[in-house]
């Protein structure tokens, strides 16, 4: 596209004779602005598409791991009922509860918090007045 085709907004600054035109000094044309605008919009659309894809992938992963998480939880609860809550169960229970919906996991999370507070009190880390 020549400057004559682009109209008056595309006029370049004249360069003195004997010097090359610096590629970094040019004026914006409407076409340039339109292209940049389109590229910015496409970048935003791509980011949104990636975000939606990752969210869908995460939902599928949770759906796929849901039955497995229930099996792990059942096994862990049997162990806890048999042996009592042990420090080794805490990390696994937290991992399992991440897979469950909030309303299902809330009672177990509350029991986990209560266990951790009792454990801290038993160790003497927290004064009883805080509990």
Report on this model:
Residues 1-16 have a biased composition (Polar residues). Keywords: Coiled coil. Residues 1-24 are annotated as: Disordered. Residues 36-66 form a coiled coil. The protein is an all-alpha fold and 131 residues long. The chain has one domain (27-130). It is built from four helices and no strands. It has helices spanning 3-6, 30-83, 87-98, 102-123. α3 packs antiparallel against α4 (102-123). The chain is elongated.
Task: Describe how the helices and strands are arranged.
Blueprint: H1 3-6, H2 30-83, H3 87-98, H4 102-123
Helix pairs in contact: 2-3, 3-4
Characteristics:
single chain, 131 residues, mainly alpha, 4 helices, disordered N terminus
Could you write a compact summary of the structure shown?
This protein has one domain. The protein contains four helices and no strands.
Overall 3D form: elongated
Count of strand segments: 0
How many separate domains make up the residues? 1
Number of helices: 4
Q: Unreliable stretches, pLDDT < 50, 5 or more residues?
A: 1-10
N-to-C span: 76 Å
Largest sheet: none
- Percent strand equals under 5%
Mean pLDDT: 76
Oligomer: single chain
Helix content: over 70%
Structural class call reads mainly alpha
Radius of gyration: 32 Å
* Succession of helices and strands: HHHH
Keywords: Coiled coil
Coiled coil: 36-66
Region (Disordered): 1-24
Biased composition (Polar residues): 1-16
């Amino acid at each position: 596209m020549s400057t004559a085709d682009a109209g008056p907004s595309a006029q370049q600054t004249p360069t003195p004779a004997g010097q090359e035109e610096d590629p970094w000094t040019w004026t914006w044309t409407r076409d340039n602005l339109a292209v940049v605008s389109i590229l910015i919009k496409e970048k935003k659309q791509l980011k949104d598409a990636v975000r939606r894809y990752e969210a869908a992938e995460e939902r599928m992963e949770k759906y796929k791991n849901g039955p497995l998480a229930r099996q792990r939880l059942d096994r862990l609860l049997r162990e806890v009922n048999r042996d009592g809550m042990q420090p080794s169960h805490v990390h696994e229970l937290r991992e399992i509860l991440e897979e469950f919906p909030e309303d299902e996991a809330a009672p177990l999370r509350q029991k986990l918090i209560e266990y951790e507070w009792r454990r801290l009190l038993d160790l003497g880390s927290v004064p009883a007045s805080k509990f």
